[in-house]
Amino acid sequence: MTPTSKAGTEAPRRPPHLTFVIYIAATAALGGFLFGYDSSVINGAVEGIRGRFDVSSGRLGTVVAIALLGAAVGALVAGRLADRVGRIRVMQLAAFLFIVSGIGSMLPFAIWDLAIWRTLGGVAIGMASVIAPAYIAEVSPPEYRGRLASFQQAAIVLGIAVSQLVNWTLVNLADGDQRGHLLGIEAWQLMLGIEAVPALVYGLMTFGIPESPRYLVSRGRTEEAKRVLGDVEAKGTDLDARVREIGDALHSEHSSTWRNLFSRRTGLLPIVWIGVVLSAFQQLVGINVIFYYSNSLWQSVGIDPESSFFYSFTTSIINIIGTVIAMIFVDRIGRKPLLLIGSIGMAVSLGTTAWAFSAKRGSGDDISLPDPQGTVALIGAHAFVLFFALSWGVVVWVLLGEMFPNRIRAAALGLAASAQWIANWAVTQSFPTLSDWNLSGAYVIYTCIALLTIPFLLIWVRETKGKALEEMG
Questions:
Q1: N or C: which end of the chain has fewer CB within 10 A?
Q2: Rounded CA gap, 267 and 273, in Å?
Q3: What is the DSSP letter of 86?
Q4: CATH code for position 112
């Protein structure tokens, strides 16, 4: 007899090839690994780039942030492109762009040349940020979808951690000099170029995973769709009925176009507004200040360079721990409760860090924090990363893959992800100026934004735990 819960809901049924389902979700999430690596590896290369091309802080900040504008473009086009050529082809295109960007960034001849390669890598990041959660949501059984969708964020934080480990290793091999020579080029160049290796692996692995059954049904390839569903759905599933269900939803709701995102009365549909604001909030709390500027941040309050590289690595480990916590609980307690826990924790930790930075004293090269405030700042920054990772870091990507109706999912996810990258760019571009103005004040701003996420979640965000994608309306 099949056990049931008290509410009468059947216990989750295991797909016949769960290992295969995990494999294809992990392959798709490799785009997230490259997303994390590419977006954060620049942290270790900043001073090397400054010295090589003798550029001002303003121009250097533009090179750091310009990839995020490319990511906004990539996210914007990925959804519609995926509806035209398929999810797998978009993954392969992203892998190709990652390879080209990595090699080009490793061998630039001018600062504008480097900016172009960084922008191209940003386009790949944007594509990966959209296609992985959409694909994983579409091939995952509802009972496992939250955990499988969280692979995306797990891969992102692993990519961040690996980039920091690579940076630290190469700097040590170059005797602590980012411009020290390794394999005939400078250490910072090798940091950026190593990305081409996992990008090649990602591209090759996409040839071994199936196309999304929803894309196949939309193209009339129903027999292929049934074969895929037979591998990823629970035992006993009526595959003909599932194909009809998907087809009915697609045909009744039409294809995903930009016009579907708007209504005459409200402009953007309310559910699209919610996705856009959710995405923007994820970045406006300032999380990527830690991952893009942590070395400079800690040095700006008197911490020596060697220790700053170490703290950059430890925050990436905390990021992984928080992501694992989210993966464990996202399908157990739901999306919305995790987000609320994270919002409260982020607000407290950011506020504490802002207070600690207010004790900054000295000027020029003689800057420090008193020992108690220095310790509080380190604990607060690590706590912020932990609360972000166990909530907003994972759950936003899960929700974006689930919350939109079939007729607009790809286009809406693309718009929401694009908004996320624009918000990321705004934070990344503005932080050096805000930091020069008042470092504590910058963290007060991030604290206020974290507090604003709480009423937003309570009023507008709906729980999607355990619902089939065809139920989203």
A1: N
A2: 9
A3: -
A4: 1.20.1250.20
User: Could you say which DSSP state residue 236 is in?
Assistant: T
Q: What is the mean pLDDT of the segment spanning 452-471?
A: 79
Q: What are phi and psi of 91, to 5 degrees?
A: -60, -45
Comparing CA positions, the residue from 371, 332, 361, 370 lying closest to residue 465 is 332
The Cα 70–Cα 39 span in angstroms is 11
Q: Write the DSSP symbol of residue 210.
A: P
Using DSSP's 3-state secondary structure scheme, residue 116 falls into: helix
- Reading the block at residue 89, the tokens are 């082809």
- Domain with 293, as residue range(s), is 18-209+254-471
Long-range contacts of 251-254 (CB under 8 A, 24+ apart): 253/405, 253/406, 253/407, 253/408, 254/407
Overall number of domains in the chain: 1
Which of the four pLDDT bands, split at 50, 70 and 90, describes residue 103? very high
Residue carrying the six token digits 């430890």: 314
341 lies in some domain: yes
Q: In this predicted structure, what is the pLDDT of residue 454?
A: 96
Q: Is residue 11 part of a domain?
A: no
